[in-house]
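Our example pasted here:


***
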Amino acid sequence: MRFRRFLDQFGSTASVVCAIHCALLPILIAVLPALGLSALAWAGFEWAFVCFATLLGGFSLWIGYKRHRVYRALAFMIPGLVLVWLGILWPEIHHDLLRHAIVMTAGGTLIAIAHLVNLRLTHGHVHDARCGHQH
């Protein structure tokens, strides 16, 4: 139970950090080299983060779904993942700094919301005769 809560809290926090990172990316690209932190603008960092968000989100929502049996969190997770994958795979988006920042910020925000919805569903759910969950 604590592990499930941790996954959603970690996932929502990481997704918010991702959304902030993407929103500030145009500024960061100009400032990071001067601070000696240009590795944070490296494309591999972005790929790693999107892969990590996909795996963590899928795993977390699957565990939550097994408990609450509600698809609501997927309504946010799927469009969020589609956006972040488009942001790194579609050249017209990936190479346009403003479009990239907008798409990745929106995707990260939706992923964070999905984790929060899953957290609420998982930890606000009470098993009783109406839920149909077998104990």
User: Anything to note?
Assistant: Helices lie at 2-35, 43-68, 74-89, 91-94, 97-124. Residues 72 and 117 are 7 Å apart (CA to CA). Residues 2-124 form one domain.
